Amino acid sequence: MHIERRLQAWIHHKPYREHYKFIPLNQISPVLQHAVVAAEDARFYQHHGFDWQELEIAAKGDMEGERTRGASPSRSNW
Q1: What distances in angstroms separate CA 16 from CA 13, 21, 71, one per listed residue?
Q2: Contacts for 7 with CB less than 8 Å, ≥ 6 apart
Q3: What is the residue-level pLDDT of the chain in tens, covering all 78 positions?
Q4: SS3 content of the chain, % helix, strand, coil (to 5)
Q5: pTM for this structure?
Q6: Longest Cα pair distance anywhere in the chain, in angstroms?
Q7: How far is the C-alpha of 46 from the C-alpha of 61, rounded, in Å?
Q8: Which DSSP letter does residue 49 get?
């Protein structure tokens, strides 16, 4: 979105200013909060921070000389 807005400002010869509006966590739907967590790590609610299964897979891959990766399954395909 920022790239699009920056491009629009450039095309129209106007300054680009980023605008942020921080919202307190208690004003954000719990469903959205859980969706964001699940997007990063779908199994977070099963392991609560340390996914030993994914850590083991990442460690084995590292020992076998594979490309280094994180232990979050959602990021492993990047």
Answers
A1: 9, 16, 37
A2: none
A3: 889 999 999 999 999 988 889 999 999 999 999 999 888 888 888 877 788 888 888 888 878 877 666 655 544 444
A4: 50, 0, 50
A5: 0.47
A6: 53
A7: 23
A8: T
